[in-house]
């Protein structure tokens, strides 16, 4: 079970890094949503969860 949690944490960290990189390059939340395959609202919530403006 701990191995699965560690894997999920790694995926979250990777997703946060992708969001940070896109946002720092000037991507809008809609652009981020397209890359992640989620809605704009979900992308924005993921960004807030990781303190990404």
Overview of this structure, please?
This protein is an all-alpha fold and 53 residues long. The protein has a domain at 27-53. It contains three helices and no strands. It has helices at 2-24, 29-36, 40-49. Helix 1 crosses helix 2 (29-36) and helix 2 packs across helix 3 (40-49). The chain is elongated. The mean pLDDT is 94.
Topology (SSEs and partners):
Layout: H1 2-24, H2 29-36, H3 40-49
How would a crystallographer describe the biggest sheet?
none
Alpha-carbon distance between the two ends:
33 Å
Shape: elongated
Measured by DSSP, the beta-strand proportion falls in: under 5%
Q: What is Rg? A: 12 Å
Number of strands: 0
Mean pLDDT: 94
Oligomer: single chain
User: Helix and strand string, N-terminal first?
Assistant: HHH
Helix content: over 70%
Q: Give the class from helix and strand content and strand pairing.
A: mainly alpha
Tally the helices: what do you get?
Answer: 3
Labels describing this entry:
53 residues; 3 helices
Gist of the model:
This protein has a domain at 27-53. Helix content is 77%, strand content 0%. The protein contains three helices and no strands.
